[in-house]
């Protein structure tokens, strides 16, 4: 009987049951969960915190930073840099890798988006924290070089996200399926509420920002047009649409009831391969989706096989129910054959 176990208790239980889970990885996941509890408390204060709104700065992406983007980044970076568990970190909010004092270095690299969907924070819509754990190639002996971070998604040792919504839920994979832990604020613990998440193979629900339609490539335009034709069109079924503008909320919904989430390439800025970032959005979410039986694609191939060329590299994202992701890939492959 595992439901009701606390996060660390469950991970230790998994290790005793034979799952390959090093103690320092369990500790790292536990420390990340502590920072997310602090972020949950900060975010839930809303206007009371006095830190809603913009910070008057931009991140490396050229995006306006919210006060809370910076506050939550500092919560994670400050806490983890003295945990003795990471050799270095990469954050959406910081241009370069975050080094860790030599006496505090550990065996892992932590990539994170401390407050994904933060454009929603001022309007009280769910936001979240996304994280990805890689092994530090040089271990704790030296400061990691940029190249040490540039690993494919298949190298991830763990990935997860926390959605700060009506409830706060910690979603985790270490390569042994996907499990969900709901924050019980009466005891201040993430408690196991769903063990072994499985995404339905089929769906009739798609999530995409339709405002960008005129900027998409033809295969994406055609797929969405066919979705909108419903049961009278080539896809032969009626679809519904959602767009929260918060990836963690979309992915959580897909884990619960299926669906497909797309942020495809668009030509608003041809120099950018997509909007979402590979290392701390697409790869961790891709790991989770695949471990729950779904697919995570660029539209042309598996996200977790994409070569990493930079800490803030962007990539097109099509993820969710496997049968629907395969359809989108077919639209792209047919277009390539015709071209
Ligand atoms: P748009 C949030 O900024 C984010 O990175 C994802 O969480 C979300 O899915 C997407 O961007 C929303 O983008 O262009 O609709 O605001």
TrEMBL record:
Positions annotated to bind Mg(2+) 2: 113, 116, 281
Pathway in which the depicted protein is active: Carbohydrate biosynthesis
For this chain's record, the cofactor binding note is: Binds 2 magnesium ions per subunit.
According to the entry, every stretch annotated as the Fructose-1-6-bisphosphatase class I N-terminal domain falls at: 7-195
The catalysed reaction is: beta-D-fructose 1,6-bisphosphate + H2O = beta-D-fructose 6-phosphate + phosphate
Coarse class of the protein's main subcellular location: cytoplasm
| Residues given in the record as Mg(2+) 1 binding sites | 92, 113, 115
Q: Which Pfam families match?
A: FBPase (PF00316), FBPase_C (PF18913)
CDD domains given in the database record? FBPase
Q: What general EC class does the enzyme of this chain belong to?
A: hydrolase
EC numbers? 3.1.3.11
Q: What is a single molecular function from GO for this protein?
A: magnesium ion binding
Q: Which coenzymes or cofactors are required?
A: Mg(2+)
Q: What biological process terms from GO does the record include?
A: fructose 1,6-bisphosphate metabolic process; fructose 6-phosphate metabolic process; fructose metabolic process; gluconeogenesis; sucrose biosynthetic process
Q: Which GO terms describe its cellular component?
A: cytosol
> What range(s) does the Fructose-1-6-bisphosphatase class 1 C-terminal domain occupy?
199-332
Q: Which UniProt keywords apply?
A: Carbohydrate metabolism, Cytoplasm, Hydrolase, Magnesium, Metal-binding
* Residues reported to bind substrate: 116-119, 209, 275
Q: Which family does it belong to?
A: Belongs to the FBPase class 1 family.
Q: Which HAMAP family match?
A: FBPase_class1 (MF_01855)
Q: Quaternary arrangement and interactors, per the entry?
A: Homotetramer.
User: What is this protein's record name?
Assistant: Fructose-1,6-bisphosphatase class 1
User: What organism does the UniProt record list as the source?
Assistant: endosymbiont of Galathealinum brachiosum
Name the encoding gene, please. fbp
